[in-house]
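RECORD TYPE: protein structure
NAME: VOC family protein
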Amino acid sequence: MSVAYKPEGYTSVSPYLVVQGAAATIEFLKSAFDATELRRYPDAEGRLMHAEVRIADSVVMLADSAPAWPALSAHVHVYVPDVDATYRRALQAGAEAVQEPVKKQDEDKRGGVKDAGGTTWWISTRVG
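PREDICTED:
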């Protein structure tokens, strides 16, 4: 029996975020996007060396920054069933507003928030 090249239920591409406050980022993702925590590997001091959450059909991997791995800002795009409701939940969970949801020239209504760890989350719903 051969071993699958990736875990069952994982997509082939996953964002990997290196942030300050990975545990807080996980809590934000749970509140804003109904993320489910999959794995958490802390070191002896409690820093997260690696963690994973699932948002809908996608896995986001993350870790606390370290001297050899500094925190980096990132932008992540997430499709959700209701962009307005998710945007409000993200703000209630402590995110900073980047752009209120608006329909522009493409088929999506999109808004943006920035979490405390420095990641900007672009939230969209296809509206036609």
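COMMENT: The helical segments are 22-33, 83-92.
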